[in-house]
Amino acid sequence: MRRSVQFQSPEQVEAGAPAGGQGGSARQQETLRTEFGFELPRGYVDESGTVHRTGVMRLATARDELVPLRDDRVRENSAYLSVVLISRVVTRIGTVEDIHPGVIEDLFASDLAFLQDFYRRINAEGHTRAAVTCPSCDEEFAVNLAGGRLGES
Prior knowledge:
By secondary structure, the protein is of the alpha+beta class. Helices cover 30% and strands 27% of the residues. It has 6 helices and 7 strands. It has helices spanning 10-15, 62-66, 72-76, 81-89, 101-105, 109-124; strands spanning 5-8, 29-32, 35-45, 51-58, 90-93, 129-133, 140-144. The strands form 3 sheets. The protein has a 3-stranded antiparallel sheet. A two-stranded antiparallel sheet has the order 1-2. Strands 6-7 form a two-stranded antiparallel ribbon. Strand 6 and strand 7 form a beta hairpin. Helix 4 crosses helix 6. The two termini are 33 Å apart.
């Protein structure tokens, strides 16, 4: 699923501009990024022994989060939820494009942990940011409340 979505800024809506942003500035016309590249720490080793490290993950939909809950494997073992969920949103690892739970099961634990964190980061983007104002200089900026690596906020 490859999709780019254009949306109108509040200025365009107020001005009654058409949704396509004809002749607007970059601030008025923005594109929603739905796919994100990644590089696995260790890599997926396929049946022939080839190591695949780069891949693509797309944004999750509500369906992606709901469908695994009906999966019998998830009902038997709730830890399997992340395997099914990650297999739904990873569209490619190296040259492997048929990503299914079996592929995700065969990842090294560090690669699965990486993909779980990557999923959280790309799907929570924008939801963990807060606008703040510096009490000293009154400068406004955004901070990510979810943090990143150890020690970041």
